[in-house]
Amino acid sequence: MNKSQLLQELNFKAVRSSGAGGQHVNKVSTKIDLSFSVEESNGLTVIEKERINDKIGHRLTKEGILQMQCDETRSQHRNKELAIARFLNLIEDALKVKKKRRKTKPSRSSIEKRLKHKKKNAQKKTNRGKPQMD
Which NCBIfam families does the protein's record reference (predicted)? Predict the structure, then answer.
């Protein structure tokens, strides 16, 4: 993954934020729409593109475009920085390879401990029954 190449391929669009805010919100475009085409990216290898499609394919459009929005702050520049940070975190998480789980055998002491606990519980439950009259 080439971060500088990916950052050059990002497309930004400033839009008016929704919600309350009075006059200011009606005339200033602070919300940022970020879009990134995964399939047309030169900063990703074919394997990385496949991995992204597998992990976050549900977030991509039919054309293979990842879209994100940020309208947390009143500053367009701050929203742009937040959107870029979120985008990079999302891509990095999607490219991480999970470690394969190795099967392990329970230790002898853990098996014995489990069996002792089972016997103790069984004895406890038999003691709860009615006593036998001889």
Answer: PRK09256.1
